[in-house]
Hints:
Elements: E1 14-15, E2 22-23, E3 29-40, E4 43-55, E5 60-64, H1 71-79, E6 86-91, E7 94-95, E8 103-106, H2 118-128, H3 133-146, H4 162-175, E9 180-184, H5 192-209, E10 212-217, H6 220-226, E11 229-233, E12 240-245, H7 257-283
Parallel strand pairs: 5-10, 5-11, 8-9, 9-10
Antiparallel strand pairs: 1-2, 3-4, 3-6, 6-7, 11-12
Helix pairs in contact: 2-3, 2-4, 3-4, 6-7
The structure holds adenosine-5'-diphosphate and magnesium ion (MG).
Magnesium ion is lined by residues 71-72, 184.
Amino acid sequence: MSKGQRVEDIQVVSQDVRTGNQRFGGVPLHVSGVSKTFAGQGRMVEALRPVDLDVAAGEFVCLVGPSGCGKSTLLSIIAGLETASSGSIEVSGCQVSGPGIDRVLLFQEAALFPWLDVQRNVEFGLRQAGIAPQKRAELTQKFIELVHLQGFERSYVHQLSGGMRQRVAIARALVIDPAILLMDEPFGALDALTRDRLHAELETIWANTGKTVVFVTHNVQEAVALADRVLVFSPRPGRITHEFRIDLPRPRSLEDHDLMNESSRILHVLKGVMDEHEREQTNG
Ligand code: ADP
Ligand code: MG
């Protein structure tokens, strides 16, 4: 990024890495009756009750719920890494039957290659896709700048902070131009200040790329800060019990009064869902 240029000014019209055609935005995601029961070691674990979920192209949806309610399972099924026991996933109207470069999944621990430097980590997917060296270098640099890591191209993973690692993971995911970003508590291990900064960066990146995002967190404030829509999951077996549309203006600040009010409202509902679940367990 040249001096004085803000990240907001960088044009991130994404490019189909194989054809070079420019495109903008994400695609719709349709989850229909997806359930999951894990079987093993003589017992069955019902992780998800049938879940229906429609995410519009370019929408930012957050899933919140207690730990163990099946959030990661749902993301893995959408990513095509796990098979559903019933139901189906459609991306842009086409049924998903396995992993694809139209969807990337990001985790709490950035799964980077420790033997590669930042630049090579980011360009990894482009190499896999057989993109020519010059184009590869150009795209890699663009996305390194987008996540503010210029100057760290030659650094290795162990030389980076947790926040920087997540930035590398985000750049590496975006450079291959997925239509859908699936994020599983990606900032859960970061300190509050770094998380705050990454929220702002992610919001900007999302606004500039128009990606469809499904973001899992157990942090209700984080969900309200980022989402167009927050969906509340019940404890296991998970199902969606409540939905909140978040119409607060962007960019959002965690200190904003309306944001705090909205967060407490959702937290209150979430606690109610958990209490009810506990009562059901106790009674029977
Ligand atoms: P969350 O992400 O909401 O914390 P998960 O999706 O990780 O929840 O897990 C939901 C439930 O499914 C948990 O009870 C977990 O132990 C169980 N589970 C997840 N993955 C497996 C697996 N591969 N085999 C058996 N049980 C699993
Ligand atoms: Mg999880």
